[in-house]
Amino acid sequence: MEVLRIKKLWQGCADVPSTKAQECIRKGVDLLIKFEDQEMLLTVADLTNKRKYISKQEYDKGKKPYRLWGYPWKPVKQEEL
Fold first, then answer.
1. What CA–CA distance (Å, rounded) separates 80 from 66?
2. Domains of the chain
3. What pTM value is reported for the model?
4. Nearest 5°: CA angle at 25, between 75 and 64?
5. How far is residue 18 from each of residues 12, 23, 45, 81, measured CA to CA in Å?
6. Which of 44, 48, 55 is nearest to 13 (CA)?
7. Which of 21, 22, 34, 56 is the most exposed place for a label (fewest CB within 10 A)?
8. CA angle 44, 18, 51 (to 5 degrees)
9. Which tens digits make up the pLDDT trace of 20-49?
């Protein structure tokens, strides 16, 4: 399982760098997103099928260029993980 910490939500969605999502899909591992004191688990199927949007802007922070993939924020209770 991979872990991603985010600092904000945008329009009720968690932004995941496309490179991170594609890496999880390729490896066949789930992605745990942490925001403040909440967590959301995205399975490989969720990463593939539940994406709500792809950012129009491409980012490049010294690494491979990526876009942001938005997933509706639906935190789970700790017991459910």
1. 31
2. 2-75 (2.40.240)
3. 0.84
4. 100
5. 18, 8, 15, 23
6. 55
7. 56
8. 55
9. 999 999 999 999 999 999 999 999 999 999
